[in-house]
Structure formats: C-alpha cells, structure tokens
Automatic annotation (TrEMBL):
Domain of life: Bacteria
Keyword list, A-Z: NADP, Oxidoreductase
PANTHER family for this protein: ALDEHYDE DEHYDROGENASE (PTHR42991)
Ranges for domain Aldehyde dehydrogenase: 20-479
Pfam families hit by this protein: Aldedh (PF00171)
Native source organism of the sequence: Candidatus Galacturonatibacter soehngenii
The protein's name in its UniProt record: NADP-dependent glyceraldehyde-3-phosphate dehydrogenase
Catalytic residue positions: E259
Family statement drawn from the similarity comment of this UniProt entry: Belongs to the aldehyde dehydrogenase family.
GO molecular function, a single term: lactaldehyde dehydrogenase (NAD+) activity
InterPro entries registered for this protein in UniProt: Ald_DH/histidinol_DH (IPR016161), Ald_DH_C (IPR016163), Ald_DH_CS_CYS (IPR016160), Ald_DH_CS_GLU (IPR029510), Ald_DH_N (IPR016162), Aldehyde_DH_dom (IPR015590), ALDH-related_metabolic_enz (IPR051020)
Length: 486
C-alpha cells in the first residue's frame, strides 16, 4: 500500500483526482516521531493553487458520485473496511510511530474504523425518505403531499486531528461519501501519513477518481484559504476549541460540524461503587496519556467518600506502564510534542503553587509525563478549568451533588460528564442538570459506540455526529410537493 503513496526518499504524496501527486512547488513538511524524534516521512506543503485544484476536482467528481447508487457506494465501503483490516499491522505500525499511540490502541483504532465504515454503509442503505400529508396543518385540504428525500451538500471539507488519525478521518469521509458528497481531507500534519494511508484504502476500494482528495500543508499557509474557499459546502472539523472558534468566525453561510475541546467531569456520589468509579476514572483519564477530547479531565467527589476513592485510584495508577510504545506494551506514552508537554507542566506548576497536593507523578522526561494526580484542587487553579490533553487529573472535593453540578456547569466546555451512583433517581437528578452533550451513568466518558449521537455544547462543538447523525448532517432534505387538482 505505502509504495504507491510515496517515493524512495519517503516523500508522501497527495491523492488528487485518483493520482498521487507532489505539491506544485515541491515543498515538504517533515514528520518526526514524538517517540524519539526520528524522521518518518514528509508530506507535501501544498499551496493555495494546489488547494484550488483539489477542490475543483472534487466539485466535478461529485456530479458523478451523487448518481452512483447507494448500494454501489455501500459495496465500495465494505471493500474499504476489508482492506483496512487486511493492512492493520502496517497501518498500526505507522500510527504508533507517527502519534506515539500504544500498539493495542492503534490496532483497535483500525478495527473500530472498519466497523464504523461497515455500519455507515448499512445505515445509509436503510435511510428512507418520508411523505407528509398536507391536511394535518389547519386549513389545508387533503390535496397536497410533500415527498421528502435527502440530497448531498456538495464538497465536504474534512479536517481530522492527530489523536485518531484514521478513525476521526473515516468518521467524516464514510458518512460524507454515503450521503453523495465528494470529500477533501485535510489531516493535521502530525497524523497526516495515516490520513493519506486511509485515502489510499478508499481509493483501492474503488472510490471514483476525484471523489476523495487529500490536502496536506501548513495551517498558517492554507488553513484560512481552504476553510473559506467558495468551493467548500460543508466543514466537519475535529480539533481544538481555539481553531474551531476561528473557523466559525471566518466562514460564512457554510454549515459546520465540529467536535472541539472538553473538560469532562466524573462526579462521584456518596453511594457510588468506588471500585467501578476508580477503574473508569483511571482508564478514562489516562489512556493515550489523556490525549482524547472525551478523557475524564476532573474528578468531582463528595467529601465523605473522597479518601476511599483516592486510595483506589492511586493503587490503579501504580499499575500503569509508562514508556516507549515501540518497545513494550505501555499505557502512558510520550505526548504529541514538547510544546504540548510544556503546557501540561505549566498547569501542574500553577496547581502546586496554589496549594494543590501532589499525590502521584508530577515528573517529566522530555515529552513523556508520568501519570499525575492532584488532590485539594480548587476552582482558583487553572487545572480545574483548562484542558491539559495530558495524563494529569485534578480532584476537587465537594460537599454535595449540587456543588458538583455547579462546578461542572461553570466550565466553558460541555462535551460529556459521568456520574457514579447506585441510585437511578440520583443519576437522573444529576444528568438532567448537566450542560453537556452526553452524560454517562456509571461509566467513563467516551464517544462510542459510534452510532450513538456524539455532540458537545458551549465551546465543545457544533452539530451532532454519530453514524446516522453524521449522514444527516452531511445531506439536506429536498421536498417535492405534489398538488392534486381533481
Ligand atoms: O478525541 C476525541 C475523540 O472523539 C474521543 O473518542 O471517546 O472514542 O476516545 P473516544
């Protein structure tokens, strides 16, 4: 697979109109591994002119693609899912080097993506239109009927993040394709090798030339240009709130679907199963070193059970393996960049200076940060509000559930929250008051299963993802009204 996408010097190319091409100016961005800084390849630094070509190509190809039957499109997606699984080891290896994710998670990301693609094809095959009788509206006779079908939007710009370079690219591409759109994929530079690999998979599966194109390049050079391009009809972005807000400020009249930052709270009530809560907090907070938008990012625990919970969390953190994912099976991996680790250090320093109690970790070697737990975190500390995107969890002790709800809702974010309790009434009391897209009862915060609606409120996002929801977001209703004159 890889040989088609790159030359002998490890320069990868972009997929444009079914061909793997360099940028016009033949400039490259070198991709280094966050594990050891080794050079693992380079991707074209595309220019505005290259972007024009990619978008124009998509626009033309979409005219053909929208007329390919849903069944034929689905067959291509089933094939793509099989090709992905057949190449799991090669892709997982590339992913591990490119984003420092542990091997098991890389492999499961590939499997999950194949499942996602198959489920998307199945779902699209089962979406039907509707007919609406006119006479249910006051004053309308029974001589009108609206036949509502779904139409594609045109060219979808899919901007994927570094942390799920395969899954969060496919979760935009597959629903977009099934809805009849052409796609321009702009992956984050770190993660772009995996994004290009995924494009190769779709190409191999038979997606028509020009229907899926890729654009790699520096956000500072082409970011604003591509997002405001008149040929783009829809933007599906996953990434930071800062960039998401910027995109929403500079675009106009283009629908947006965005998954942004989060500060997901785990709220532990007095009657919670503390073993269950501790297990979920540790896996939810520290997997992939906390570099997930849905990671548990703060613990709001009732004072009465705080000590008992902490004891269990500390014991579980001690079992986490820290190190190099290329060498061993590890839980805690180096962060994506030195800069990302610097930011986490800053939050830890602020918490220490303001009196938080460091219970575990707090150490750092380069961009590898040990799993860290702070107790006695207060709302004056940055760690109570800011998203570290690293393996650091603050414990905020609260007197009752209403205080927990207040602190949870005072956040600028509203992605998910978890509540741990054995009492269904208490679960609903808390869930009904939280300003988030999803509340998990007795589980860590997480996106999957991927056919559930996934959304963030406030600064955590715009619109709703999830397989059927994404297909609907990337299409629009088209009504044909039959008027009967008899
Ligand atoms: O980082 C953002 C992802 O959407 C999180 O997905 O909950 O499956 O890890 P996840």
């Amino acid at each position: 697979m890889l040989n088609i996408m790159k030359d002998k010097d490890n320069h990868y190319r972009n997929l444009i109109n079914g061909n793997w091409v360099e940028s016009k100016e033949k400039r490259y961005i070198t991709i280094y591994s966050p594990i050891d800084n080794a050079e693992i390849g380079s991707v074209p630094a595309m220019s505005k002119e290259d972007v024009d070509i990619a978008i124009d190509t998509a626009k033309q190809a979409q005219k053909l693609w929208k007329n390919v039957t849903i069944d034929e499109k689905a067959e291509i997606l089933y094939k793509a899912a099989n090709i992905l699984v057949a190449n799991k080891q090669e892709l997982a290896e590339l992913m591990m080097k490119e984003i420092a994710k542990d091997r098991k998670s890389c492999e499961s990301e590939v499997d999950r993506t194949a499942d996602f693609i198959r489920f998307t094809a199945d779902t699209a095959k089962n979406i039907s239109g509707e007919s609406i009788p006119g006479d249910s509206f006051p004053g309308v006779k029974n001589n009108k009927i609206s036949i509502v079908q779904r139409e594609p939007l045109g060219v979808v710009l899919a901007i994927s993040p570094f942390n799920y370079p395969v899954n969060l690219a496919a979760s935009k591409i597959a629903p977009g394709l099934m809805a009849g759109n052409a796609i321009v994929l702009k992956p984050a530079s770190q993660g772009s090798l995996c994004g290009l690999y995924l494009a190769r998979v779709f190409q191999e599966a038979g997606v028509l030339p020009g229907v899926l194109n890729t654009v790699t390049g520096k956000g500072s050079e082409i970011g604003d240009y591509i997002t405001t391009h008149s040929g783009i009809n829809f933007i599906n972005f996953t990434g930071s709130t800062e960039v998401g807000k910027h995109i929403s400020q500079i675009t106009s009249m283009v629908p947006l679907l965005m998954e942004l930052g989060g500060k997901d709270a785990a709220i532990i009530l007095k009657d919670a199963d503390l073993d269950l809560a501790a297990t979920n907090i540790v896996s939810g907070g520290y997997s992939y070193s906390g570099q997930r938008c849905t990671a548990v990012k703060r613990i709001l625990v009732m004072e009465e059970v705080a000590d008992a919970l902490i004891e269990k969390i500390v014991a579980k953190i001690a079992t986490l393996k820290v190190g190099n994912p290329l060498e061993e099976d590890v839980d805690i991996v180096p962060l994506i960049s030195e800069k990302a680790a610097d930011f986490v250090s800053e939050l830890m320093e602020d918490a220490k200076e303001k009196g938080a109690k460091l219970l575990v970790g707090g150490t750092r070697e380069g961009n590898l940060i040990a799993p860290t737990l702070f107790d006695q975190v207060t709302t004056e500390m940055r760690l109570a509000w800011e998203e570290p995107f690293g393996p650091v969890l603050p414990i905020i002790r609260v007197k009752d559930k209403d205080e927990a709800i207040k602190i949870a809702n005072d956040s600028e974010y509203g992605l998910q929250s978890a509540v741990f309790t054995e009492n269904i009434n208490e679960a609903f009391y808390v869930a009904n008051r939280l300003e988030v897209g999803t509340v998990q009862v007795n589980n860590k915060t997480e996106r999957g299963p991927d056919h559930f609606p996934f959304l963030g409120v406030k600064s955590s996002g715009i619109g709703t993802q999830g397989i059927r929801y994404s297909i609907e977001s990337m299409s629009r209703p088209k009504a044909t009204v039959i008027n009967i004159h008899s």
